[in-house]
Amino acid sequence: MRFNGPVLFLDRSDINTDEIIPARYLTEISKEALRPHLLEDLSLEEFDPRADIAGKRVIVTRSNFGCGSSREHAPWALEVNGITVVVARSFARIFRQNMFNCGMLAIELPKKDIDSLFALGDKVTIAVDIDQETVITKVATEVCCKFTLNSFDKALVQAGGWLAYADKKY
Amino acid sequence: MGKTITEKIFAAHRRDVPSDNNVVLDIDVVMCHEITTPIAINDLMERGMDRVFDPQKIKVVIDHVTPSKDSKTATQAKILRDWARRNRIKDFFDIGANGVCHALFPEKGFIRPGYTVIMGDSHTCTHGAFGAFAAGIGTTDLEVGILKGVCSFRLPETMKIVITGKLGKGVYAKDVILRIIKELTVNGATDKVMEFCGPVVDAMSMEARMTLCNMAIEAGATCGVCMPDRVTAEYLWPFIKEQYADVDAAVNDFKKWHSDADARYVAEKIFDVSNLNPQVTYGFKPDEVKDIADMAGTRVDQVYMGSCTNGRIEDLRAAATVLKGRRIADNVRAILSPATPQVFTQALEEGLIKIFMDAGFCVTNPTCGACLGMSNGVLAAGEVCASTTNRNFNGRMGKGGMVHLMSPVSAAATAVRGAIVDPREMM
Description:
The structure holds two protein chains of two kinds. By secondary structure, chain A is an alpha/beta fold. Chain A has one domain (4-159): Aconitase, domain 4, CATH 3.20.19.10. Chain A has seven helices and seven strands, in the order E-H-H-E-H-E-H-E-H-E-E-E-H-H. Chain A has a seven-stranded mixed beta sheet. In chain A, strand 2 (58-61), helix 3 and strand 3 form a beta-alpha-beta unit. Helix content of chain B is 32%, strand content 20%. In chain B, helix 2 links the parallel strand 3 and strand 4. By secondary structure, chain B is an alpha/beta fold. Chain B has 15 helices and 19 strands. Chain B starts with a helix and ends in a 10-residue tail after the last helix. Chains A and B meet through helix 4, helix 6 and helix 7 of A and strand 1, helix 2, helix 3, helix 5 and strand 8 of B.
């Protein structure tokens, strides 16, 4: 899985999993079917899911992203849209675990780093280096944010997720 | 240094310690419903691993949309049903025997003090009311749980929530937990266990404790937990009487799980509830809470009573005291969904169903349906619902709809008035 690309900025805290993928789509039994419905119910001014999500690979957002329901449909809806990294001030526990379990990245950064990423404006591309534990973006000048990954979470990402990790070990 | 109940449960179930912060636990109960399990089942089949670690430890129910409303939900139910039969899972609850998972499984005696419990459902924290560690998880965790009986967790810290004083008339566990969430905020307990204790909790029934623990997730908590005591032992007695000489023996045995007096807590919060008024949510987050009197007069279109938070017999009894001899207002439609068949039967026998129906309620079969806007009472855009459920997210019960969370008694009074009202005016 690659962890870089254009950024979708969601400037709000407490974005819940009902907003990421509404319950009315939980009757789907394929991940692919979730694709058109990502962030369909997000309450965010001027946000247009169809136009704004296309081509994005990374989400940068505020606090407590992914709160509410345990539905793994939320990370799946991101994944089938090509988004494999969420960078936030903080996450809800289940969503964060679901991301790592899928071999995806939920990166927590201090407020000042999140602020500095938001300050870069819309057309930003980010590269995440898991080994160096850095988030790097190049606009006019380079911004480099250092993060810390729990060693187990890192092992999950390197294994390609919890299924592969657990199959080998338990 | 002493240990908390959660630390004791973790120590007793530790399978592996993959890092300083993480532990892999052996799981006592893996619970499954038809929304989050079918994708795990399909994946297991595709990987040629269609088996379960222990059919006795897997409990299965079709509850979110039941009876199925369309072909898609019928397919989800079928995948779950076929899988349960194929894998000889005895504790499978289908139409006629099914109810809301977090009300049904405790009623069956599946949850015991000291257990580890997982389910692909965020309100799994409900079962901490029995002195268990119970946590919501995603489908990948569920798949590994089904196959191997293990699940990984970060070591949670524990927040001690001491509830003191005496609950006034018209004030219930739901009001207490809404007040606590208001104080903690929606992520105030993230990665933490909320340990509920104090005289108010000691005096609560198991049903009220389940209401408390059910909404721990709304403050971000991994689990809510109460110390298992005589109330717990008496509730579980029909299921544990072969194990113990008498209730006293069970109560004594349960003490091994109690948090030690010198256990370490990350925070301790004391809530004196003596002057607490009935509470209600006003916004789109469960921490947006105020006194119900401050919302009085807000017109509602629908009243919904049910769910894993407040669909149990005590909830119905309390609501019926307000509804008895009254009619719901003309501008309101009201739905009662008893949480389980046992609750339904008991409500029938006690004459509660007649009270609800005479008042103008529609009574449906047990299901999660309307709580998450999937079936059985979905709102139209612009509509307002007074609800005994647990989430007021924007669009939760239907796109464009507004949800005000409150206790069953407050919801009953609101149905009668046709607008939000302090229930004490009718008691």
